[in-house]
Amino acid sequence: MFGFKELALNLLRIVTGLMFWQHGAQKLFGWLGGTAVESWLSWPMGAAGILEFFGGLLILFGVFTRPVAFLLCGQMAVAYFWRHLPSGFWPIENGGERAVLFCFIFLFLWAAGGGRFSVDGLLKRRRGEGD
Fold first, then answer.
1. Is-above-0.85 flag for pTM?
2. What is the pLDDT of residue 63?
3. Residue 21: how many CA atoms within 13 Å on its side-chain side?
């Protein structure tokens, strides 16, 4: 049996993964109104696109949720301090609200894990490690 808390965790993970994946799709492929980078190997946008696209998919499905969330939390912290903070202290003024929100959501997912309705949760149950 599961409760609202478990449902909310899984919904947060799924929606966050889907939202983050879109940023990578814009950078890598020019989808969804974006402009594709010339090369996936370009720094920093190609690297960011790879992390956002593939990391977003892994978060969406809950695969390696904790390590991926930790990596993406760091990416968003770097994005904020490197790209946004020089334009002003407050995120609302420097355009960094999304970076801050993603950073802290990924920090939470690192701590909480993928939840019951994730690939991680399924594998955990199959190994008999609990609910």
1. yes
2. 97
3. 13
